[in-house]
Amino acid sequence: MTSIGILGCAGRMGRSLIAAGIDAGATIAGGTERPGAVAIGIDLGTLAGRDPLGVAVTDDAAALFALADVVIDFTAPVAAPSHATLAAKAGKALVIGTTGLSVDQQAAIDLAASHVPVVQAANFSLGVNLLAALTRKVASILGPSQWDIEVIEMHHRHKVDAPSGTALALGRAAADGRGVDLDTVSDRVRDGHTGARVPGHIGFATLRGGDVVGEHTVLFAADGERLELTHKATDRGIFSRGAVHAALWAAGKAPGRYDMAHVLEIA
Ligand code: NAD
């Protein structure tokens, strides 16, 4: 039986990951939280609203990497690089769901992936990964001279990064479909006298509020018609089940960077 460690196990996703790991029949090796977090010492089963597992939350990530076959990180961008370094040192597979990483933080993940298997996805749901594949295909057909692309997302009021990692991944899929680099065509913020829309640019719009788990629309707009591809998440379980599936898949794989298209075999 594969044993899974969960970093950030008392967070919204962490608790859902514990439940998903139990439901998938995995062994929950343990979980960590920030030093000083109130959850330290609490049983992981209790945190997830399940029967006690006899494993308490700690702040010792190195010990968790020593114990587990594979470790899942849904924490914060500032924590992800040191977790990746620990994965490489311990020779353990890593699944990363944390979003909003800077270029330097991402470089630490990429470095770890030359030593161990790393599955990284801005979104672990089957539906969003299919949406990305559809977006790439549609963008390759609907050219920039007539079709404008906008990515619209909405999340709960606690989300700290914008646009969401998923919105950026969908923008990247659209840019890939058109054979361009997203960084050279993205309009991430519009305010004031912006001037007319630049043909070929990919725009982003961010909404925040309430308890929305995550909604994404890729909108293709031309004169006289619009095509909208939408995914609505109503339960975080879709992400945690996908991440646990990725963790079971990653344990024992060759070192390298993988994404959900590899795990779901829709690449
Ligand atoms: P959250 O704030 O509820 O949970 C994060 C948890 O990590 C907190 O409990 C925090 O105390 C803990 N943490 C922070 N630093 C830590 C450290 N150094 N060691 C151990 N624990 C630490 O946030 P959330 O809603 O669970 O989201 C977490 C991350 O996952 C965010 O970046 C979010 O965007 C991302 N996310 C990704 C997906 C996906 O499918 N990839 C889905 C949902 C959320």
The helix/strand class is: alpha/beta
Largest sheet: 6 strands, parallel
User: Per DSSP, what share of the residues sits in E-state strands of 2 or more residues?
Assistant: 15-25%
Shape from CA axes? elongated
Total number of distinct structural domains: 2
Number of helices: 10
Question: Taking Cα atoms only, what radius of gyration do you get, to the nearest Å?
Answer: 19 Å
Tell me the span between the first and last alpha carbons: 28 Å
- Looking at how many chains there are and whether they match, the oligomeric state comes to single chain
Per DSSP E runs of 2 or more residues, the count of β-strands stands at: 11
**CATH fold-level topology of the largest domain:** Rossmann fold
How would you describe the overall organization of this protein?
- The structure is a single chain.
- This protein is an alpha/beta fold and 267 residues long.
- It folds into two domains: 3-120 and 236-264, NAD(P)-binding Rossmann-like Domain (Rossmann fold), CATH 3.40.50.720; 126-233, Dihydrodipicolinate Reductase, domain 2 (2-Layer Sandwich), CATH 3.30.360.
- It is 36% helix and 23% strand.
- It contains ten helices and eleven strands.
- It has helices spanning 12-23, 44-47, 61-67, 80-90, 103-112, 126-141, 165-177, 182-185, 237-250, 260-263, and strands at 3-7, 27-32, 70-73, 93-96, 117-120, 148-155, 186-187, 202-208, 214-222, 225-233, 256-258.
- The chain has a six-stranded parallel sheet with strand order 2-1-3-4-5-11, sandwiched between helices. The protein has a five-stranded mixed sheet with strand order 7-8-6-9-10.
- Strand 1, helix 1 and strand 2 form a beta-alpha-beta unit.
- Helix 1 packs across helix 9 and helix 4 (80-90) packs parallel to helix 5 (103-112).
- The chain starts with a strand and ends with a helix.
- The mean pLDDT is 97.
- The site of nicotinamide-adenine-dinucleotide has 24 residues, from helix 1.
